[in-house]
């Protein structure tokens, strides 16, 4: 009720009140209509966005279930997400996978190379492709060392029509997908967390890649039809604290000195199990300190070269009782021949439908150079190739998982596939340094000398 102050008599309000009520009713109706219209619009827009998203993820993208096998979990998970965005995206991706895996020689292999953008993986992929085998690469491009080197290797592979799928060996969905597309005759399994000393910094990355990743791969391989034959990278480090030299395959390997060695040893035990239960043909190769062009920057010969060229000091380890440390350094081309020889002599797996039909081949070989060289000698060779004097700090080997000495007996690899290393450390390092200065565009005395020695 309204009260009008003042002397004038109050107006007749009955009509105006009705009008006001009517107007307010109309306003309410209109605003409800507006609200309904905008909700409808909002609903439609939401529906449209949802449909687009569903389409996007179900048709073009595989499930985002990849897990990380590398040492940089977060970076890698992101990488997996990104890679998932690229793998499996339809017909053109499948076409690349098929094309890359198709052999171009009669009875050629179709090989899945894991760790194909890695050092040994890229060299082996090229060698297999060159002789007419089909090669499909798989690599997670983790950042354990400079990923741009891995990308450069990938580029090289792609020039030779080798496609590298970006993904992880722990991603069984991806692995199954690859096996759905291609009936691989072989797997060359080189993806791993490498490096002896880094295992103290990031132990779980070794378990993720070298144990869990290997099992994930074997699970897919055992269920595949046909089952592929598998050749994979073990390590000279499994000999651990063995003092009996040279190391032979039947020597004891139950005293690993590093977690890295322990995971490789675990891999050998796991290989035995999958061979025993499922009839997978498995060959483990114990590599001895592999070096060469396109090598790994975390290895001593590689970062010594870098540091010597930059006039930085290098640590040269000696044992606790001040004896020299030595390695059976093995040149990459010899290792490639060993890998190819192992693939060529690998028998077929014997299982199908996840069941073993009869006993299958199970092998393990040393692939070394049979001529250990001390680290001090390695540095001397680099000094002369680089024409720079190294700033050496000779220190006692920290307790970091390193072993003092390695020396391979390779008679079994020679007997079974003619493995015979032919490159001594000086010739191999010459090739490495030549590649190094070229790749990193280094203008140095070393480069001039290497170039001129080439023209003579
Ligand atoms: O043979 C193998 O199975 C292993 O070979 C290498 O391991 P490693 O032999 O320790 O190779 P580097 O790390 O390059 O070391 C070579 C030598 O240099 C020595 N070193 C290393 C680093 C350093 O600062 N100073 C130094 O004297 C090491 O003690 C070792 O004797 C690889 O890094 C492993 O991935 C591989 O599995």
**Fraction of residues in H or I helices:** 40-55%
Number of beta strands: 15
Give the class from helix and strand content and strand pairing: alpha/beta
Strand count, sense and barrel status of the largest sheet are: 7 strands, parallel
Give the uncertain stretches in residue-range form. Answer: 1-19, 52-85
**CATH second-level architecture of the largest domain:** 3-Layer(aba) Sandwich
**How much beta, percentage-wise?**
5-15%
Please identify the oligomeric state.
single chain
End-to-end separation in angstroms reads 115 Å
The backbone outline, from C-alpha atoms, is globular
CATH uppermost class of the largest domain: Alpha Beta
Radius of gyration, in Å, reads: 32 Å
Average pLDDT, all residues: 86
Strand order of the largest sheet: 3-2-1-4-5-6-13
CATH fold-level assignment of the largest domain:
Rossmann fold
Secondary-structure element series: HHHEHEHEHEHEHEEHEEEHEEEEHEHHH
Continuous helix count: 14
CATH homologous group name of the largest domain: NAD(P)-binding Rossmann-like Domain
Give the count of structural domains: 2
Small-molecule binders here are: uridine-5'-diphosphate-glucuronic acid
Domain NAD(P)-binding: 112-431
Membrane topology: Multi-pass membrane protein
Protein name: UDP-glucuronate 4-epimerase
Pfam families: GDP_Man_Dehyd
């Amino acid at each position: 009720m309204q009260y009008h102050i003042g002397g004038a008599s109050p107006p007749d309000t009955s009509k105006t009140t009705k009008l006001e009520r009517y107007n307010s009713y109309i306003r309410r109706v209109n605003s409800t209509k507006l609200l309904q219209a905008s909700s409808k619009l909002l609903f439609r827009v939401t529906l449209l966005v949802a449909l687009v998203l569903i389409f996007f993820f179900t048709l073009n993208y595989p499930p985002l279930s990849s897990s990380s096998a590398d040492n940089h979990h977060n970076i890698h998970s992101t990488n997996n997400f990104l890679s998932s965005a690229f793998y499996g995206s339809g017909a053109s991706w499948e076409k690349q996978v098929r094309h890359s895996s198709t052999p171009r020689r009669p009875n050629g292999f179709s090989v899945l190379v894991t760790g194909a953008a890695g050092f040994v993986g890229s060299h082996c992929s090229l060698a297999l492709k060159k002789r007419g085998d089909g090669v499909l690469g798989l690599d997670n491009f983790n950042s354990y060392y400079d990923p741009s080197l891995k990308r450069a290797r990938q580029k090289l592979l792609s020039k030779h029509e080798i496609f590298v799928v970006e993904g992880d060996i722990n991603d069984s969905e991806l692995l199954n997908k690859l096996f759905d597309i291609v009936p691989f005759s072989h797997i060359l399994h080189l993806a791993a967390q490498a490096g002896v000393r880094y295992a103290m910094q990031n132990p779980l990355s070794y378990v993720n890649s070298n144990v869990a990743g290997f099992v994930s791969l074997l699970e897919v391989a055992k269920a595949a039809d046909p089952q592929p034959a598998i050749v994979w990278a073990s390590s000279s480090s499994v000999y651990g604290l063995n003092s009996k030299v040279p190391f032979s395959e039947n020597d004891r390997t139950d005293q690993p000195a590093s977690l890295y060695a322990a995971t490789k040893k675990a891999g050998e035990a796991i290989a035995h199990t999958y061979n025993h239960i499922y009839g997978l043909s498995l060959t483990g190769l114990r590599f001895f300190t592999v070096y060469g062009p396109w090598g790994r920057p975390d290895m001593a010969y590689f970062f010594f070269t870098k540091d010597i060229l930059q006039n930085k000091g290098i640590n040269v380890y000696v044992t606790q009782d001040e004896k020299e440390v030595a390695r059976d350094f093995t040149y990459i081309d010899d290792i490639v021949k060993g890998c190819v020889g192992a693939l060529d002599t690998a028998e077929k797996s014997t299982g199908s439908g996840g069941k073993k039909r009869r006993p299958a081949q199970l092998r393990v070989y040393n692939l070394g150079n049979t001529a250990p060289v001390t680290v001090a000698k390695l540095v001397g060779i680099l000094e002369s190739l680089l024409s720079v004097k190294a700033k050496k700090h000779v220190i006692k080997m920290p307790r970091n998982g390193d072993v003092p000495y390695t020396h391979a007996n390779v008679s079994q690899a020679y007997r079974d596939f003619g493995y015979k290393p032919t490159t001594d450390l000086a010739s191999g390092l010459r090739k490495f340094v030549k590649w190094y200065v070229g790749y990193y565009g280094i203008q140095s005395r070393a480069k001039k000398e290497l170039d001129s020695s080439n023209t003579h």
